[in-house]
From TrEMBL:
Pfam family, one: JetD_C
Source organism: Desulforapulum autotrophicum (strain ATCC 43914 / DSM 3382 / VKM B-1955 / HRM2) (Desulfobacterium autotrophicum)
Domain DUF3322: 9-192
Stretches assigned to the Wadjet protein JetD C-terminal domain: 216-389
Highest taxon, organism lineage: Bacteria
InterPro entries in alphabetical order: DUF3322 (IPR024537), JetD_C (IPR024534), UCP028408 (IPR014544)
The protein's name in its UniProt record: Wadjet protein JetD C-terminal domain-containing protein
Native organism taxonomy: Bacteria, Pseudomonadati, Thermodesulfobacteriota, Desulfobacteria, Desulfobacterales
Amino acid sequence: MTAWTRDIDIRKRLEKKWNNGQLLAQCVSPGPFNPLRIPLKHPTAKELTHEFDAARTWIGHLMAHAGKQSFKKFTIEWQESNHRTLGRNQIPRAVIFHTLDQILHYLGKTVAAERYQSLFREITALHPELAELLIERPLDVLAHDTVWPSLLAIVSFIRQTPCPGIYLRQLEIPGVDTKFIETHKAWLTRLLIQVLPGSAVNEQARGASAFERRFGFLSKPARIRFRTLDPDFTIMGLSDMEIPEHDFCHLPIMPDTIFIVENDINGLAFPRFPRALVIFGLGYGLSALSNAHWMQDKPIWYWGDMDTHGFAMLDQIRHYFPQTRSFLMDYATLLSHRALWGRETSPATRDLPLLTPDEARVYDTLRHNLHAPMVRLEQEQISFSQVRSVVKAIQTNG
């Protein structure tokens, strides 16, 4: 079937405008509608000779879709063809939609467009500042059709009570619970940024997981797991604890040395060390330590997996505590355990400016696959006798 026998091109062009929100935005935008002309693929002179019946059917198809005079979906722009055999014929050259209503009717989107306009009026009556966002993302407006009352109730509450300093669970809004907010965090973030003053938005907190911090709610505090490594250096006789980060910032005892390891079992089995503690299991959550200002003048030793992410975490902790030194993350340790190398699934590749030259050499070896693809040496692969030996050397030499 030839390309000009259907109205596929017309529909595709219009659906593209619908899917990018352009048509809906025009429903509420000021200014006149400019008629939309869509050129048509039409039969050539040769095709008219050999497929005249198909061409006539195509023309009839277009005329039927154009609608009746009482409500035209579109008008047809004709051009005259003077064929030596067939004589003079009128061939459709383009279709023209003179109004937005014609396009919506043709696509079967009239009801959706009316609903969007209704929502636009209702929402902007309460929050005029949202008009730009609603025009920019009209399909999102429709996608949230059934939940707008709850969304607007949340926006109104936070607008009236910026940075409320409570947990989301404590919101007393009918029909709104924590799960609802979790489900709609991304869209709520867009709405709140439009209506709140800059002083009520923490721009340093980004992403759906930072919603609470961004808009002044309380969030579940990170918890820090640690062990004291000296039986004579405990907290009320307790040596193994997991406490909120705020409490960790105010420990009743001050260790002389701090070790940080990734793996939980390594933290539990870590060798004894005078007046020291070991922190473990934080992964990339090392920022939980950033407000423990008492750590700033303490010796800190970091031991992570010898893979690109282990070095990325080492670089991260140095943002907060530049004095941090690493152990068992050197080139000799990597090469001596070649038989135990595993593979990373998604290596880090960014530059890590806070690594020492020796650490950067190992990191570059890993991220550039200089020995093997995606090398990973996990902490568990290093013998515990070697761990004890290195920790003893740290105790002796500092």
